[in-house]
Prior knowledge:
The structure is a homodimer of 196-residue chains.
Chain A: H1 4-21, H2 28-35, H3 39-45, H4 49-74, H5 78-86, H6 88-91, H7 93-99, H8 102-113, H9 118-138, H10 145-165, H11 169-194
Helix pairs in contact in A: 1-2, 1-4, 4-9, 5-9, 5-11, 7-10, 8-9, 9-10, 10-11
Chain A binds a DNA duplex (18 and 18 nucleotides) through helix 3.
Amino acid sequence: MSDKSTRAQIVDAADRLFYRHGFDHTSFADIAGAVKISRGNFYHHFKAKDDILDSVIETRLANTRAMLDGWENASDDPAERIRSFINILIMNEDKISKYGCPVGTLSSELAKLNHAARTDANGLFTLFRTWLARQFALLGLKDDADRLAMHLLARSQGVATLTNAFPDPAFVRHEVEQMCDWLDRCIAGAKHTGGK
Amino acid sequence: MSDKSTRAQIVDAADRLFYRHGFDHTSFADIAGAVKISRGNFYHHFKAKDDILDSVIETRLANTRAMLDGWENASDDPAERIRSFINILIMNEDKISKYGCPVGTLSSELAKLNHAARTDANGLFTLFRTWLARQFALLGLKDDADRLAMHLLARSQGVATLTNAFPDPAFVRHEVEQMCDWLDRCIAGAKHTGGK
DNA sequence: GTCTATAGATTGATAGAC
DNA sequence: GTCTATCAATCTATAGAC
């Protein structure tokens, strides 16, 4: 077998540690300890710490694309697809209450660090943004699609941030319900003007 | 003059640097450089880095209380007070687009660091939360006051996070308008059930 | 109250044996 | 491909002169 396994293990451990403790705060020693290799062996697979971050972001982008494709294949109804997005808050509630949203917290940290990979990390947001906008367009809300996508992304981010500060399943459940109600009203509004 | 001036300068510089680059990423050397004192002189005023963080949080708590008192004194209308809160997003748009919300980003970072001051930092959220809830109660929405406060806090946090990732004045303006509309609908709903 | 000098630990990164 | 040994830089923190 090639070195793919070790490299994948490094990226996997880094992904988890960056999420849980932040990129800057995670040291090579931390990652090496998790994978159980020596620090020296590291540089056979990656030239620098930033290269690991790049790989982690690439992995997250690929995983996110796969998740969005999965939702797209799971239902023909754009509203149902959007509800899949909204429900991440409940599916991942445990992790979010402990570590926040992996997309939002990485984006915020890299912004503060003024890190070169900041734009790449924001690509994770863009992935959700364009996917959501496409679903809204399919619902007949083409003119407002991006605006609605940004609105829903913001709502989701805000709930994640506050759940991280004040873990409370009832709060999450209520906010998710409110987002679903909002979605229904959007669709109802689209049908009224759709016949024009 | 006592040492108050230097100490205040340290807290002031730390406050700014913690906000701009994060707590963990800001070193004593960074703060010392900003205040233009030597690193050694530091420990005459603070025993450890964590003590500076505590002072920064205390300062932010005091400043936030003063701001909330100011809004309370500026208007007798709770709705107008709440709009003062919503409008921070526009007032501080420049800083938010660069560094995010000072409350949310500190809360997220300390959560990842599993830092002892995490609870104190979340007190900043609590300050807004209870203040907003009181305003909603004054509007006749006593039963849902905390829920509405959390909802508005979440909306605000989400807009801040996304503005940090995608700076766009039009997005902020539109979301602020939506929040004000939402507030008006809350008040209209309260008046309907208020006569009961 | 402020400084210089320095300790002791940890960081990211390199060199070279196996 | 993995290891040990090590470097240079940086970090928090301390000691002691002025």
